[in-house]
Amino acid sequence: MESYDLIIIGGGPAGITAGIYGARQKLNTLLITKSFGGQVARKVVMIENYPGFEEISGMELIQKFEKHLRKQKIDIERDEVSKVKKIKEHFIVITKSKNRFESKAIIVASGADPRPLKVLGEKEFLGKGLSYCPLCDGPLFSDKTVAVIGGGNSAFEAAIFLSKIAKKIYILEASEKVRADAENQERVKKTGKVEIITNTQVQKIQGKQFVNSLIYEDRKTKREIKLPVEGIFVEIGSQPATSFVKDLVDFNERDEIAVEFETCQTKTPGLFAAGDCNIGKFKQIVTAASEGAKAALAAYGYIEK
Ligand SMILES: Cc1cc2nc3c(=O)[nH]c(=O)nc-3n(C[C@H](O)[C@H](O)[C@H](O)COP(=O)(O)OP(=O)(O)OC[C@H]3O[C@@H](n4cnc5c(N)ncnc54)[C@H](O)[C@@H]3O)c2cc1C
Fold first, then answer.
1. pTM score, two decimals?
2. Closest Cα to atom 3, ligand 1: which residue?
3. Residue 107 C-alpha to ligand 1 middle, in angstroms?
């Protein structure tokens, strides 16, 4: 079994930054990730709030992050972590492909996955008209009618992106009002292709081989309405990818890992959690990167001690 000072789990902004800091502290570091980019790779409109770049696409920003990381002396494994255990002073990391690694400290930077709707037909039509990634699957819906489920910024940005491809877009929001900021609402209006329906409770996704409609309940009238659509994009937020450390950490009610603010230290000494997977309130690229740096410096202090 290969042994490291530090193992980082996740290749988003938090994990990549932790990797750069860990390697620069001369820690023998391994970064394990399913993919590079994390949620940044799902970004469909330009990023306009990362300092140093007035406007940059998610893909371009993450390529720059990855290039910077690969300049360091660091080992990288493309794999999914399925379990982390602590045995005496050491951690054992087990991956989906049954590899095992040992380390003195761990940084969990596994971010979050899209939250599912949990309705009938969702699993059945995933990849057959239903998607969690407009950037990846949007181009398949040229000149078609699609629905975006959700009323926050991600849903509105998805609709803006899809308006360049699809014929018509419905935004279905569960509550009385959408939550997207004023700028995104303005941009959506300008497309002239988006219809917003509020007070909806999606009940069912249906079709034959591919999606052909969805059923929602109008929450005011309690009437069931069939909406003919060929594509459905689910944008109702995310859920932390944290189950593989469940025996070593405390969670809040949203399954986010409890950490100490200054160091990103969890309740288990030597185990840190940075970025969207922890209880931090503001989930942004810049805050995730900042926590990756904090966690790596704290891990260095822990290992030195
Ligand atoms: C649509 C959308 C638009 C956004 N727009 C902006 C914006 O404009 N500006 C901004 O600042 N923020 C934006 N955000 C938020 C920002 O993307 C996140 O806050 C940020 O990506 C969090 O970084 P992270 O490294 O903590 O997690 P993530 O980006 O989620 O990365 C987690 C990484 O961990 C890996 N991973 C997960 N589980 C495992 C496992 N078990 N084993 C191995 N690897 C694993 C994943 O593959 C991924 O690479 C947006 C988010 C979304 C979804």
1. 0.89
2. 43
3. 15
